[in-house]
Structures are given as structure tokens and as C-alpha cells.
Amino acid sequence: MQPSADVRDALLNFYAKRSAGDAASFDELVSTEPTAFIGTAPGEWFVDRERLRRGFAWAVRLKAGPNPQGWSEGSVGIGADEPAMTLPDGTVIRTRLTMFFRREDGAWKVFGYHFSAGVPDEEVEELQRRWLG
């Protein structure tokens, strides 16, 4: 893989459109063949494109981290960043993101992503003991 400003720009464009709640841009941004879209909370694992479309207008804002990056090889690209995610109630979550792109119709379109929140392992272990019994 080689560094790719185009993939990085596609990542930032996704943030801008998603943050604006621009549901009309969904088809412009998301692949016709999505795989898994994995969020930070338990149960946030989406593979249904129409469910993704409905959630796209949800008022979540994404602000780029200090060093968003992109790489590509052929028709596949990867973006990585540490964006701040602002929820509708104003809560800000510092996240880590890996976003996967495919070249479709001359544009980089998202076919999957994984958000995570950096939490020390010992805290995750304690939370999972409480959640999972």
C-alpha cells in the first residue's frame, strides 16, 4: 500500500457529510456492497445497507484527529484516524477509526469501518465482567 491523499480526502469528506446529517449523500459515500460497520458500543455491528442509510441522518458529528491518513493499492483503500465523535447530547468521545474504501464509479466509497474507544485493558476487563456476568 502507498500513502494516498485521495483516500484521506474521502475519509474527511465522509466526516463532513456525516456531520452535516446529509442523508442525500449516502449513495455517493457508501459502497453498493458494504461489509461490516462496527461502532463503539455493544451491538453496533451493521451489515444491512438500508439500516445504515436510516442511521446516516442521526446527528453525530465527526471532527478529524491530528493526523488523518490514507493508503491505497489498486481499487482498495484504507483510512485511519483518531476523530472526536460528538453525540446529539453533546458528549464527546475520542475514538480510533479504521475505514475501508473501494473504488466505485470513479470515487472512493466506504465498504466498512471500525470505531473503537481507547480504554485501558484492565478497565475493559472490569466492564465486561459486569456486563457479561
**What name does the CATH topology carry?**
Nuclear Transport Factor 2, Chain: A
Q: Please work out how many helical segments DSSP would assign.
A: 4
Strand content: 25-35%
By DSSP, the count of extended strands is 10
| The first-level CATH class name | Alpha Beta
Using brief descriptors, characterize the structure shown:
seven-stranded mixed β-sheet; alpha+beta; about 130 residues; Nuclear Transport Factor 2, Chain: A; single chain; 10 strands; 4 helices
Q: How would you explain this protein's 3D organization?
A:
Helix content is 29%, strand content 34%. It contains 4 helices and 10 strands, in the order βααββαβββββββα. The chain has helices spanning 5-19, 26-29, 49-56, 121-132, and strands spanning 2-3, 37-38, 45-46, 61-63, 69-73, 76-81, 84-86, 92-94, 96-104, 107-116. The strands form 2 sheets. It has a 7-stranded mixed sheet. It is globular, with a radius of gyration of 15 Å.
Characterize this entry briefly.
The protein is α+β, with helices and mostly antiparallel strands. It is built from four helices and ten strands.
Give the topology, please.
Blueprint: E1 2-3, H1 5-19, H2 26-29, E2 37-38, E3 45-46, H3 49-56, E4 61-63, E5 69-73, E6 76-81, E7 84-86, E8 92-94, E9 96-104, E10 107-116, H4 121-132
Parallel strand pairs: 2-10
Antiparallel strand pairs: 1-5, 2-3, 4-7, 5-6, 6-9, 7-8, 9-10
